Amino acid sequence: MGNGCWTYHHFTPEIQTRQYRSPEVIIGADYDTSADVWSFACTIFEMITGDFLFEPRKGQNYDKDDDHLAQMMELLGRMPKNMALSGKNSTQFFDKTGSLKNIRGLNYWPLEKVLMEKYRIKEKNAKELAAFLKPMLSWYTSDRASAQEMLKHPWLNTANDDFDGNYHYTDREYEVLMLKKQMRGSKDNLEDGKQEMSELQISDAEENAADEDSNYSSDESTASFLSQKESKVEFRRAKERQAKINNSFTGPYPLDPIDFPHADKGANTQFTNALKK
């Protein structure tokens, strides 16, 4: 709460804890109360999964802000050009086309698939949760849902019905899900970095939805795959080898005992300026 500001008086352009910081704050554009809604979505994701939705790290050729924006774009699609170039810090991160300057080859992974493939949440529950989070993660502050609107969202009334043993995939169901993903190959593989974000933004449900085939026991080709030496560990390692950069959900991140990622360093300008007065 140290960087909290009045709606009519902004003490500092940099608000919010790092992991919950909204894109408009990072690029130095105008912010309002919708920034808190963005933070709330990040918090809900963390409460359910145990992980931060965004956890940026500094790299050799980019800083935490670059990585933060890259992770947002990997999850939500390309930031609209007019927004990307609207902040006082925009030229630090984006070129004139609205593309990131310092990070290339993003690994696109839509929210529904993150929930299913990383956290093993079943398709129905993943779609319902994503439908709750997405209105709060809109790029444009004017399009972001308000707190009052989110209080009326049906997920708040139905989510508790499924929080039991049927909420997550079993080990076998998860293995089948991931093997089917491999078997499909490049047809709807969104994390290989080759698909343009314009396609991701306008694609239909077939392109971005999770697997619709849930008849695990009758899939003979899948069963033959399971009989081989393929395993979850091997799949994860292959996935890591294919990752072009280490700035996304796919990782892996290096161990860093010095640069703690949970907090930004430096004095809080809101209070240091007040002391000077």
Architecture overview:
- The protein is an all-alpha fold and about 280 residues long.
- It has a single domain (about 20-255), classed as Transferase(Phosphotransferase) domain 1 (Transferase(Phosphotransferase), domain 1).
- Helix content is about 45%, strand content about 0%.
- It contains 15 helices and no strands.
- The protein has helices at about 25, 35-50, 65-75, 80-85, 90-95, 110-120, 125-135, 145-150, 155-160, 170-185, 195-200, 205-210, 220-225, 230-240, 270-275.
- The longest helix is centred in the first third of the chain and has 16 residues, at about 35-50.
- Mean pLDDT is about 75; it is low at about 190-230 and about 240-265.
- Would you list the SSEs in sequence order as H and E? HHHHHHHHHHHHHHH
Helix content: 40-55%
By secondary-structure content and strand pairing, the structural class works out as: mainly alpha
Large-scale geometry: globular
How many domains make up the coordinates? 1
CATH class: Mainly Alpha
User: Based on the structure given, which CATH architecture is correct?
Assistant: Orthogonal Bundle
Average pLDDT, rounded to a whole number, is 75
Largest sheet: none
Q: Treating each run of at least 4 consecutive H or I residues as one helix, how many helices?
A: 15
Contiguous low-pLDDT stretches (5 residues minimum) are: 190-230, 240-263
Query: By CATH's scheme, which homologous superfamily applies?
Result: Transferase(Phosphotransferase) domain 1
| End-to-end gap | 21 Å
Q: Give the radius of gyration.
A: 20 Å
At the fold tier of CATH, the topology name is Transferase(Phosphotransferase), domain 1
